[in-house]
Specification:
76% helix, single chain, mainly alpha
């Protein structure tokens, strides 16, 4: 895995490829949102958010071993005691917002077909509520991306 990361990050085309991948992901998100494929939207936003968090974690870590980690592991590292002193207030606030969204995302992805205490709640109602989680993920991706840009200046 180290060799893969080194090859990708050493490639001068990585910026252009990342831009194109993000652009295509956001375009697909918008199509999926329009077609009410909310779980796909949430998954795309999680991937984009995780990619931004991986980049940040690798930038500030000594081991630079935070590629291909789960959202949970990335957030645990970035909110760790030592890292809190490296990050600015905007970044820490963005991370807290992502933690809250991650919990909603987990429920949406892993508990969508499970019964809840409210037996009268219909699947269609629960599914329609996923639109809010999808939109929040998009907003958080933008917030995080802006926070990282400010942090790196």
């Amino acid at each position: 895995m180290d060799r893969i990361r080194k090859t990708v990050t050493d490639n001068p085309q990585v910026g252009e490829v990342r831009y194109n991948t993000y652009y295509a992901s956001i375009e697909r998100y918008q199509q999926a949102l329009e077609n009410k494929y909310y779980i796909e939207c949430i998954s795309l936003m999680e991937s984009l958010i995780a990619d931004r968090l991986e980049s940040l974690a690798n930038q500030i870590s000594e081991s630079r071993d935070y590629s291909y980690k789960t959202l949970e592991r990335l957030l645990e590292f970035l909110q760790g005691h030592k890292q809190k002193y490296l990050l600015n207030e905007d970044m820490l606030q963005s991370l807290e917002h992502i933690v809250n969204w991650k919990n909603d995302r987990n429920k949406a992805i892993h508990e969508m077909a499970k019964l809840t205490d409210n037996l009268n709640e219909q699947f269609s109602t629960r599914y329609a509520n996923l639109k809010n989680i999808a939109n929040e993920g998009y907003n958080l991706f933008r917030e995080l991306d802006n926070s990282i840009r400010k942090f790196r200046k």
